[in-house]
Design brief:
165 residues; 1 helix; 9 strands
């Protein structure tokens, strides 16, 4: 009988939603990876994502590890009960005086076929025009980043950095 109960618990644990394993706070840290925009080839993107008001801000990190400006502003994040990720919504502006992308940022645990200890991953998908259209076939901006370490940069303490998204 004990074997049956234990095997049942193992099945339930394996079927448990991802949200029990990660939380929106797992977005904090230094993230690095490839990004693509419609008008350019892939390039490296490094962001330190830190708490910013009630949400999160992504501070750009240069190749020499110096901290730049706030490029990403997202909400506190939420997960859907049947989803295998946590989703954040906000904006991304990589260059001054350009139209920001409206973005969805999703954080994922490593896939089951990846080695133990593999880093968390985030997907940033951006759209133009002020409204995110989730059912597009392609997006003007996409990035896949992995968590490298704890964040070093800090969000500026100005009112504008804490504006709603």
């Amino acid at each position: 009988m004990l074997k049956i109960i234990l095997s049942g618990l193992c099945v339930l644990a394996a079927a448990a939603p991802l949200s029990a394993a990660i939380s929106p706070a797992n977005i904090a840290g230094r993230w690095q990876g490839e990004s693509w925009a419609q008008d350019s080839s892939g390039s490296k993107l490094t962001l330190d994502i830190v708490r910013c008001g009630e949400g999160w801000c992504g501070i750009t990190v240069a190749a020499d590890n110096s901290c730049g400006g706030t490029a990403l502003k997202i909400d506190a994040g939420k997960y859907e009960p049947d989803a295998d990720y946590i989703q954040f919504n906000g904006s991304l502006q990589l260059a001054p005086k350009t139209e920001p992308y409206v973005v969805q940022v999703s954080i994922f645990e490593p896939a089951s076929d990846e080695p133990a200890g593999a880093p968390l991953k985030i997907q940033i998908t951006g759209d133009t025009g002020g409204q995110f259209r989730a059912y597009r076939r392609s997006f003007p901006f996409e990035a896949q980043l992995v968590r490298m370490q704890d964040a070093v940069c800090h969000a500026p303490q100005t009112v504008s950095s804490l504006d709603r998204h």
